[in-house]
Design brief:
By secondary structure, the protein is of the alpha/beta class. 36% of the residues lie in helices and 25% in strands. The chain is built from 13 helices and 16 strands. The longest helix has 33 residues. The protein is globular, with a radius of gyration of 21 Å. 47% of the residues are buried.
Length: 388
């Protein structure tokens, strides 16, 4: 992936007397960042002149977030309340920086519904333009890419995807089929609760909404799925599946060329992903809460079964760092757990230049204290420049 255009700011920085979380070990030592890249890692407690004494705090790579709906929350802080997009973008960026996310793939819905009760308007192209303009003007603290959530069950998916070009930094296209009665919403009770709170639907509205979604899936499902796969290739984006539930879903995902699976809903699907070489991503809120809010498989269960590769903050940005430390307790392996929020997502998204404390990689790093097992973020640097 072309990741040119990231902030060009850089500084020289030496972090010393730190517990460096390296790819395969935790090492007491110092790390130097020059011109935005890690240039030296030295073992020992020596504190060079001018260095930052980290007092044995952890130093680790910046977090890499592949799927977050957080930007939409800033643009629509309450149902039907639209917030100006530039302030929303800047607030979103600052929030992510404050919780240690230094690279984000901002999820925007592609595919709208203009009929029935559950209407969704087109917005992805307009917001992407504003996001890319803000990035070009240097208004962001962290590195932003686009993630297009391709809604199979919609009316305008392919028209909306056609508006994007390979120059738009679309890093991920995920195939989402939210047809009621399958995948995430096998249990319609969970869907009813969600739309009733977000869209104010009564029972009649909900029944009409469900019928409309099923009609759209029957009319457009196959065409949209095949078209979205082709569009992802045209854009040079990594393809992701979403809410795979059965082995058959995973077989289809593999045939489509999916690189990683977002939030498989069953142990069966996660095992099938492993069997077919597809990385498994689960949500940080699932880890922290001990289970899925939709009643699907628990992320901890997948971790215990060695079927977890990547974590995403999903709808709680502050949960990403905490979830990695929770998984470290499950595995008794901190470097491996930290990789689920750093190196592994970076590689899955085609960004080999970041996500690990290794010489030659980007100096996106965090300083983290441990308070009775809970990680407390104290500093964030992007390319050696402190941003939080």
């Amino acid at each position: 992936m072309d990741h040119s255009g990231d902030t060009s700011m850089s500084d020289d920085l030496c972090l010393a007397n730190a517990q460096l979380i390296l790819p395969d070990q935790v090492l007491t030592g110092s790390m130097t960042i020059e011109q935005g890249k890690i240039t030296e890692i030295v073992e020992g407690d020596h504190k060079p002149s001018g260095s930052v004494d980290c007092a044995r705090d952890f130093v680790m790579p910046g977090l890499v977030e592949l799927h977050t709906d957080n930007l939409e929350r800033h643009m629509e802080p309450r149902p039907e309340v639209d917030w100006p997009h530039l302030p929303a973008l800047i607030a979103h960026d600052a929030e992510l920086a404050s919780v240690g996310i230094t690279t984000v793939f901002d999820a925007l819905r592609a595919g709208s519904i203009h009929s029935g009760k559950g209407r969704y308007i087109d917005y992805a192209r307009a917001v992407a333009d504003e996001l890319l303009a803000a990035r070009a003007q240097g208004l962001f603290k962290i590195s932003h890419f686009l993630h297009l959530r391709a809604e199979i069950c919609s009316e305008t998916l392919l028209e909306e995807l056609a508006c994007f070009t390979p120059d738009d930094r679309v890093g991920i296209v995920s195939l989402m089929d939210h047809t009621p009665g399958q995948r995430q919403f096998r249990d319609l009770t969970a869907l009813r609760t969600y739309v009733a709170k977000k869209r104010g639907m009564d029972d009649n509205d909900f029944a009409e909404h469900v019928a409309n979604l099923k009609r759209l899936q029957a009319q457009f499902g196959d065409k949209h799925e095949k078209g979205a796969v082709l569009e992802a290739k045209r854009l040079g984006a990594v393809l992701a599946s979403h809410d795979d539930t059965t082995r058959e879903h995973v077989v289809t995902s593999q045939s489509n060329g999916v690189g990683f699976a977002e939030f498989p809903t069953t142990l069966e699907a996660a095992q099938a992903c492993r069997d077919h070489g597809i990385a498994v991503m689960m949500g940080a809120p699932n880890v922290i809460r001990g289970g899925s809010h939709s009643g699907n498989v628990a992320a901890i269960e997948l971790a215990q079964a060695d079927l977890l590769d990547i974590l995403s903050s999903d709808y709680v940005p502050g949960g990403l760092l905490m979830s990695a430390f929770r998984i470290a307790d499950v595995w008794d392996d901190l470097p491996r757990a930290i990789a689920t929020v750093t190196r592994t997502p970076a590689m899955a998204a085609g960004l080999p230049d970041r996500g690990s404390l290794q010489t030659g990689l980007r100096g996106d790093v965090l300083r983290v204290k441990s308070n009775q097992g809970t990680p407390v973020l104290s500093r964030v640097w992007v390319k050696g420049v402190r941003i939080s």
